[in-house]
Amino acid sequence: MNRKGSFFLAFFTVVAVFVFIVFVNMNKEKILNETKIVNVGKFSEVSINATLDEEEIELFLYTSMEYASFNALLKLGNDGGTLKEQNCEGISEHVIWKDNCFFSDNLEENFFDRFKDLFDGYVKEYRLDEVNIEWKIDEDGNLVVEPDGLIELGYENVRYGFEPDSEYALDYDFSDYNKILSKANDCIKDEEDKGVTRNNLFENCRNDKDFRWTIKIDGRYVVFDVAKMYKNLGEVAVKFALPYNQ
Question: Disulfide: which of 72, 141, 189, 241 matches 115 by Cβ 3.0-4.6 Å?
Fold first, then answer.
């Protein structure tokens, strides 16, 4: 995804969250008025408000986890899967995979670091107290993110707490990074083995049915954008460059 696409995604996320909050609050007021609960006493009013707020927060948390997951994968792919604190050499805004600059051995943890930064930002904008978020691998091998702990709400002198049960299963295969690296190395070796007859077409990569490959030569490097379509996420790309002996 180019810079324009990334900017649009970030802008869309902020707008979507804002619209979501406005819609839910308007809907809550409509329910309260239609059911006349506002007229039946303070305790009943607090009870229904708490129930509606809990449902609103649960939906908000799920939506935030969904948005944060996609944006975290986008950031991870743009960084070639490297750790945030790594100072890797780059070319054409792509990390060069060489020496110690490769994607992390624990991509799930690397993803979650980026996810948590984004998720915490959404929660802060929503004016919730800090919500703890955890990740795990479920029985199907999927990474799952879920809130952990108690969320407390206050209504004048009444306190209400609940444990959110929202969770989001990430539709992404982190082993794709190794598959992509292996395929890219094979394609570069095939070109190098051609010697003077090489055509720099990298046919085996471009004809790959599992991923969509965008490839260009930049000096002594091959620059790759390798994308795959996921059912619940859309297209997710991994960007990197590899040395090329021309």
Answer: 72
**Per-residue confidence (pLDDT) for residue 26, from 0 to 100:** 54
Question: Token pair for residue 43?
Answer: 């305790």
Domain count of the chain?
Answer: 2
- Looking at residue 50, its pLDDT comes to 55
- Full DSSP string of 199-238: -S--HHHHT-SSSEEEEEEETTEEEEEEEEEETTTEEEEE
* 48 within 8 A of 37, measured Cβ to Cβ: yes
Quote the CA–CA distance of 89 and 162 in Å, as a whole number.
47
Identify the domain containing residue 212 by its residue range.
176-243
pTM of the model as a whole: 0.78
> How far apart are the C-alpha atoms of 175 and 230, rounded to whole Å?
14
Looking at residue 7, its pLDDT comes to 40
Pull the structure tokens for residue 232. 């619940």
Better-scored residue on pLDDT, 14 or 56: 56
Does one domain contain both 141 and 197? Answer: no
Q: Helical H runs in the chain?
A: 3-34, 42-78, 107-125, 176-193, 203-206
What is the C-alpha separation between 192 and 199, in angstroms, rounded? 10
pLDDT tens for each residue of 117-132: 999 999 888 878 778 9
Please indicate, yes or no, if residue 50 is contained in any of the structural domains. Answer: yes
Other C-beta atoms lying within 10 Å of the C-beta of residue 73? 22
